[in-house]
Structure formats: structure tokens, C-alpha cells
Amino acid sequence: MPSYNISQYSIGLQVNGEWRTIQVRTADTLLYVLRESLGLTGSKNGCDNGDCGTCTILVNGVPIKSCIMLTVEANGQHITTIEGLTHSPIMQAFVQQQAFQCGYCTPGFIVNCHGLLNAHPDANEETIGIWLESNICRCTSYEEIHKAVMSVFTSNNAAKPTSQGS
Amino acid sequence: MNGQAVGKSVPRKETWEKVTGRAKYVDDASNLGLLHAKIAISPHAHAIIKSIDLSEAWKLPGVRAIITGQYYPVLTGSPLEDRPPIAIDKVRYYGEPIALVVAEQEHIAEMAALSIKVEYDPLPVVNSPTEAYQKNAPIIHEHLAMYKRTEEAIPEAGTNVANRTKIRKGNMEEGWKRSDHTIEVHVTIPQSDHAAMELRSSRAEIVPDGKVIIHSTSQSPYVIRRAISSFLHIPLHQVIVHTPLVGGSFGGKSAIQMEFLAVLASRAVGGRAVNIVNSRELDMISSPVHIGLDARVKLGCTQEGKIEAADILFLYDGGAYSDRGAIMSRAGATDCTGPYRIDNVHCDSLCMYTNHPYSTSFRGFGHPEMTLAIERAMDILAKKVQMDPLAFRILNAIQPGDTSPTQTQLNRSNLGDLSMCITKLKTLIRWDEPSKAEIHGYLIRAKGVCCFWKNSNTPTNAGAGAIVMYNADGSVTLLCGAVEIGQGTRTALTQMLAERLRMDEQMVQISTDVNTESDPQHWKTVASRSTFLVGNAVLRAADDAIKQLKEIASIVLGYPPTELDVGGGRIYFIHRPDIGIEIIKIANGYMYPNGNTIGGQVIGRGNYSMQHLTQLDPETGKGTPGPDWTVGAQAVEVEINTREYTYRIVKAASVIDAGKVINPEFARGQITGAMSMGLSFASREAFQFDPNGKILNPQLRTYKLIRYGGQPEYLVEFVETPNLEAPYGLRGLGEHGLIGMPAALANSLTNAIGVELNQLPLTPEMIWGMVHDSV
């Protein structure tokens, strides 16, 4: 049997707090590897083109669409997926507001909101809008997502009166 | 908690799975050992396939099978069998599957699919339903006369008509004679897409005894079973379908498409499990899409504004194959007048073949499209008789005692209360204030209104079953075939069951998955019919379980079952509620102190089928297509810049007769979700076809959807006029928020700029063009 050896690279990355070593093709997207090699199927594929945000993860705390990041670029990076966000106040707020219907876009939205909360704990409505328009919800829970996010940021901003946008 | 589950906003059963990323959709299963299939598609909208060269594709490593239309040349489709799962001899739309590759790895399958070389002879392209209707139009289906069909479709051989539904009511000559004013309007709506966030995917394997096991993201697991059984000529019980949570569908996953491909792929590799997932691009153009419409409406009314006659032609853009487009065009006919009393009606509603992607059910099922046509006509006629648009609608609003276009007698139970919806809407949107106002300079705010109605066009025997099983701890498990597509039906059904059993809703358990091998059948999760059909079955199953509990309790307590009642986790004596027995002691049979046991696990069963529905008369349309209507009134308020025609949707309002609201939060979510989808497709969504029928925008980057921040302020209110045949009196509401949105948006923008806007999508460019064409 002839071998068909395409380049495989050994990559080390930290996923949800644990270091993992994996073999990947150069063309493998991070989304593909998270789902197919690591079994982290909370990140969804909605377009494979960076358009819809269902695959949003955190790379070193910053929201990234994992369908347009190559896995080789993640070498040595800290990755957080929805499975790694166990105690996010955003998650609780989504539950409270029932800010989802089919739930397919929900992990991407929650991860993006969580990244926003870390980056701009006192974000104003405009900043929130700019960040969240990168994700699509087709069932439309935008109104409920808005309420969920505002509930977290409002309690945050109340705690820190020096509120300021990005 | 006793019987307080209905009317409460309980959270979805699968809440925590969904927010933690643990919720499993079809494509989230482990891929170990799976083969992967990819589709090669046609780059032509209409062409003869001259030859297919697979040699390059076979050279790629790990390719296990490549099949073309010749591998299994069988036609599929319901009600008309006109579609090969893989094109045979000719292609009829851009994106049609022409071959299927199965490989060990997904990327190899994709590379192989792209390496297939096909030689085509292009044919003239039919690019709109109006073109398709012309006498000399190229014929898309030469063998239309030979296709197998059910009586639901009446195709016209030698033309591009896949189905024609006729409505003939009253006397047109009389109607026009009584009309002092007449108007005509021509409305066009291009095809667009469902664009559910979850891409369509299916997994199939054929085990050695011939059993076919399918996992599919679908609204119709029981129809998949039937379709695959007849497709492969195997017994129904040998097809097992699993459907877990579905990531949105909006009608688009009611069609059977990927399942045929998955099964063929598995068959081609000796039955191994094969997975097939669409890319977004293929999901938009190769799988079925949202139907389009060209409509011509002529209305006439008296001096006083009473509508006397309607002449209507609907040409639906069904695309290359008829699928549910045939039934959608019929649905448009059955409700063709909108919710108005019109005694003289002539309507032809046609599903036209074109060289566009084929269409299937889309939220609203033919109604949002025809409602735009009727409601534009209503506004234009109101203007002509110089009446306020809402007053004109109130005057003509359909009422109990009237008849529908299909001559069904209407009453409060089957119709609901449209006048009440309009009255409430008036207050909700402050209609007494001017409907148009200048904000400053070139910025104008304006309102537009509309009404809608919708019955379901369901098979006359559509039905559902339900099983209610008591567990040893007194909790209850509900088994049923309604698919959870995000609408919350499975949770709402547990509420209805808890209400009937007078128990805590949290003690009623339901899985997230449907399995045709163990769950009782449900026709399909479509047509806003699941809470009606399954709901009725659930109540009957509950009553059956209660009867069994009472029988055991009667023996233990020594009172006749008729004098016992259920509640608070007990069966008790009606006249002395303190005398009773806990359900936990009898749910799995009652054991006497000496060990003797009577009864066993309490398992209630129930079923329900549509009652008194009939086929339509082919010449007049007379008949009963569905059990009840949902009626409503809607409005949109826009703020438009009259120099560049950019606009913002400020408010959108719906007042809907829901019969009974089971879960207020879900109900509102269904309405606002549907409104968003209607506003999105009315304001920006459309496939852009080039003259050769090629789609130019098959990506979410170029095909725009409303994003976060684009949502208007939603105003939603309900009227509750019970449907006496439905559980707790409920009416369907999953689709209805969408129906009037395109019309209300078009009416508000027309009101703002004074130019009739009769085509979608209402982009600033389109409005600019219409304004400049009109001067």
C-alpha cells in the first residue's frame, strides 16, 4: 500500500487548563481539531468561513473564530472552549433569561460574552453591540441575549462606578 | 403544586445542556470508524449531462466509493415523485448533486468531489416563475405525465406547472358589478434560504440483517422511515431513525434529502456507517430553499369600502423539483383572500418549476408570501376609497358565520377573534397618533399594518401517539415523537401533561431525542401542529394513566373509581379527600403487607388524528384543509432617510389569537423569533441569480441576516379564543409571527416615501430604484 504522507505536525497547546499534545495536518482548522481530535463538540461549525460565530473560543482570553484559525497557529497557546467555562456569570444569565431557542449558537455567544466581560468588565452598550454583532442567532434570542448581557454588565458596573466603554 | 403547569414560563428541560455546550446535535457524535461523504454539484442551472469522468477522483487515497445518478436511478418526492437524489441525464438547478464521493477522510472526499469532471450541454434557463408560465417556456420536466403522485398534486404535463389549485367561490360577474373601485397589484418575492445555524447532516449504516439505521437532523423522523423504506424497498420496521436536538430548521429540515444520500453512500460501501454534512454553501444552494412568489391580485370594493371580488394568480417559485412547494402553493390558495370576508373569489395558485434550487416548507408555509400580495392590495384599495388602513381592515375582517375561500363554515372555535386582535393592535402601536411624521429634515418615521390568518394544510390522517410511564418514585416519563427544534414543544408537552396529572412539572421527564424504534409516531414536527396533535395524544395518555391509577386505588381503598380523583401525588376519595393513597405506592402496582401485589407499572397510552379534514375539490377548491386558523394583526414602524433610503426598523408589533398560551416565555420567543426572520428576509435576504441561474451569494458573508443589535423593539400581545378541539384550547403559533412582517414592513416604507413597494427584498438600493422608476 503506497503511503500518502502529508505533513503532520506535533502541536502542544493548553485546552481548558490542560496541556495536550496532538498530531495535526497543516490545513486543519482549530475548530476541526477541537471537535474531531479532542471531542470538544460544544464549538459548532456554522459556516467554516468566519461569518457566523458559532465556533467562537478564547485564545489567551480573546474571542477567536476557531474555524478560521489553523491549529498550527495555536501551538503553545491557551485555549478556552465552552466546556472550560464552568462558572461564568454569563452562563447563569443566559439560563435566567432563557436567551436561546435551538441552542446551536449559544456556546459561541456565551464564549464571546465571557471574553468581553474579561476584556471590558465595564463595557457600555455600544461596545457590547460591536462585540456581539459577530455572532448570528437565527431563532433570534437577541432581545433575551441583550437582557442577559446587560444584567451581568449592569451588576458589574454598579460594583465599579468608574464605568467606561472600550 | 396541583395543576398549575399550564400558563407558566418554566425553563426548557435541556437548558443546562445548551448553555454548557453539552447538548448533542447529530454531527456531535464520535466520528471513530465513520466514513465521510461529500457531494459534487452542478455548475449549470439547466443542462444535459454528456459524460462524467471519475478517473482523477479515484486517484486520491482513501476514496472508497464514487456514485452518480446511474447507481440507483430512483425518483423521490412527496406528493410528486420528480427528483432523483443524484441527477440522472440532466441537471435542473445550480448546485444539484451530480455525484457522491465516500472516503476515509473528510478532506479527501471533498478533494475527490472537486476532481470529478463532467461534460454538459447547457439548455435555456427558466429564471422566474413568470418566465416558466409563458407558453413557449423551456420545459424542465419532459416526463411530468409519468411521475408517480398522490392526489394532493395536480401537475399539467407539457408545461412547467407542478401543481395547480383552483378556488372558485361565488359569482365573479356579480362581484365586479358591485365594485365601485378596483385595483391591481403585482408582487414579486425572490427565493431565499432558511439559514438554520446547524447545517444539515445525516449518518447512515446498513447492518448485515438489512436494517438501516439513520441519525439525522430533521423535523420528520417518521417520514424519513417511510421514505427510505419505499426508496430501498425494505419493510418500514427495518428503518430506524434517531433525531436528537435540532439546531434550528424553520421548515427546511422537514424535507427528506441528505438521508437519501447518506443511505446510498452507505450502500455503496457495503453498509458501513457514513456521515454526510453540508458546507454552508451547499446547505444554501444544494439543499432545498425558501419558496419565492410572483403574484397578481385584483380587488374590488363598494363606495363604502366593502370588498366584493378578488381575482388572484399566485405563481410560486418551486424551483427545479416540487417537493413541498406543491403543497405550499395549495396552502396559499386555501387562505388566498387573507382574513377578509370576500364572497366572490377566483384564484389559481400554481407551483411552477424553474431552474432555481428546489423549495421546501418554510415557516409560514406559503402564507408570508401571499400575505404580502394581499396586504399590499388592501393598503392600495384603502387609499383608493380614502379609508384608514386599519378601519378598512376592521370593516372587512372575517367573522364567525362567514365562509373561508374553501367554503368552510367559520365559527369562533375554528377561527378565533381577528377583530379583537386589530383592536388591541391599535392601542399597542398608538394608531390614533399620525402614522407618518417627520423627525427632522429628511428623516421620516412611519407605521404600516397588516392582518394574517393561517390554517394548516395537513394530510387528512396526520396524527400522533404518546406514552406516559409512571416511575417508581412517582415521577413520570413522557414518550412522544415531537422533535425539539428550539421551539420548546417537548417542554411545553410536559407542562400540559403535568397539568392534567395535577403534578409538579419538574417531576415529568422527557428525553431530548426522538427514536422511531421506541417513541410513538408523530406525523412531522411542522405546521405549528405538534402541541395540537401530540398534545391531544398526551392528554388522552394521561387520562388512560389516571384511569389505571384509579382502578388500583379503588381496590385498595374500597371506593368505586368514579368517586376517586387525582392530585397532590395522591388518588383520593372525592367526598373525603383525606382518604386516599399516594401514587408512589401504586404507580408500579400495589403490594399488600403480606407481599401479594396487584396491578403493575402504570403506562398510559393515547393517540389523536386530524378529524373531519377533506381533500379539496379540484375544480372549486371546496373542502377542509386543516382544523383551525390562527389569526392576528401586525405592525412595523420604520425610520427612513429619504435621501439615501437607508432605514431602521424601530418597532415591530404582533397581536395573535393563541387560543391558550401554554408557556408565555416560549410563546413570546416564538413570535419574536418568527418576526425577526420575516423582517430579515423582507429587508435583506434574497438569492441573487445571474442570467444563467447561478447563485451569486451562497455565503453568510454575502447573504446577510439580521445580527445582534439589528433587532427592533418587539411588542407582543395575545388574545385567547379557545379552539374547542385543541388541548387547553391552544392554537398553533410557531410560524405566525412571521407571516405579516414582510407586508407590514412594505406598508410602512410605502407610507413613508409614497411609492408603492411591491417587491422584496426591501433594500435601500431596491427602494431607490423603485422611487426613480416611478418618476
Written description of the protein model:
The complex is a heterodimer of chains A (166) and B (775). Chain A has a five-stranded mixed sheet with strand order 2-1-5-3-4, with helices on one face. Chain A has helices spanning 30-36, 89-97, 106-119, 125-132, 142-159, and strands spanning 8-15, 18-25, 56-59, 62-65, 78-80. Chain A is globular, with a radius of gyration of 17 Å. By secondary structure, chain A is α+β, with helices and mostly antiparallel strands. Chain A has two domains: 8-81, Ubiquitin-like (UB roll) (Roll); 89-158, DNA polymerase, domain 1 (Orthogonal Bundle), CATH 1.10.150. In chain A, a hairpin with a 2-residue loop joins strand 3 (56-59) and strand 4 (62-65). In chain A, helix 2 packs across helix 5 (142-159). Chain B contains 19 helices and 30 strands. In chain B, the strands form seven sheets. Chain B has an eight-stranded mixed sheet with strand order 3-5-1-12-9-10-11-21. Chain B has a five-stranded mixed sheet with strand order 7-15-14-13-8. In chain B, helix 10 runs parallel beside helix 18, helix 14 (489-501) packs parallel to helix 15 (530-557) and helix 16 (664-683) crosses helix 18. The longest helix of chain B has 28 residues, at 530-557. The chains are: A alpha+beta (166), B alpha+beta (775). The interface between A and B is large, with 54 and 56 residues.
Summary?
With 166 residues, chain A is α+β, with helices and mostly antiparallel strands. Helices cover 34% and strands 16% of the residues of chain A. At the A-B interface, helix 2, helix 3 and helix 5 of A face helix 1 and helix 16 of B.
Outline type of chain A: globular
Q: Based on helices, strands and strand pairing, what is the structural class of chain B?
A: alpha+beta
Sequence stretches where pLDDT stays below 50 over 5 or more residues of chain A: 161-166
What is the average of the pLDDT values of chain B?
Answer: 97
Cα-based radius of gyration of chain A, to the nearest Å: 17 Å
Indicate the percent of residues in helices of chain A.
Answer: 25-40%
Adjacency order of strands in the biggest sheet of chain B: 3-5-1-12-9-10-11-21
Our count of helices of chain A gives 5
Tally the beta strands of chain A. 5
